[in-house]
Amino acid sequence: MSGSDAAPDARVARVVVGVSGSPGSRTALRRAAAEAHHRQAELWAVRAWQSPGGELHARRASAAPLADGDWENLARTTLVTTIREVLPDGPSVPLHAVLTRGTPGRALAETADREDDLLVVGAGHRGHLHRALHPSVSRYCLAHACCPVLAVPPSPLEADLAAAQPPQCVATAPGHPTLHQRGDTTPPDA
Asked: Structure pTM?
């Protein structure tokens, strides 16, 4: 096929979702998978992580590199485990699992960097103390994302179901994601 016969370089639609392992993010992941299926888009599950005390503290602490590896591994485990539990049969669309260092809101807004992306975030019930200590990821995304943002309220049954069911072991199965570091956009099957 000659260069003039080639189809124009079309970008694949993407649905980006934040995955922290919380009940709200689990509900958001479920909704994002449904949206990606409906739109025939790729699903990008993003887990942001930081050192305790933030990046400034990590640069000043002498033992930070060792602790950083532990925090990164915990974030990786949370991302993969949450995807496997929420989507046990694997998604019906291509999935990219992205692990990135930084604050969740900024990581999500930077990943969903195209106007035609859809960014899905969990919007949970938060008390006054929690709001004061932890900035709202959904508010950050609504203010800074360049694409539409879907804030998904938590399921009222999510906490009840989690309390009633013991944790389950899920075996690795075909169709589950291959983990990518931020910036690595190679599809899992490539």
From this structure: 0.70
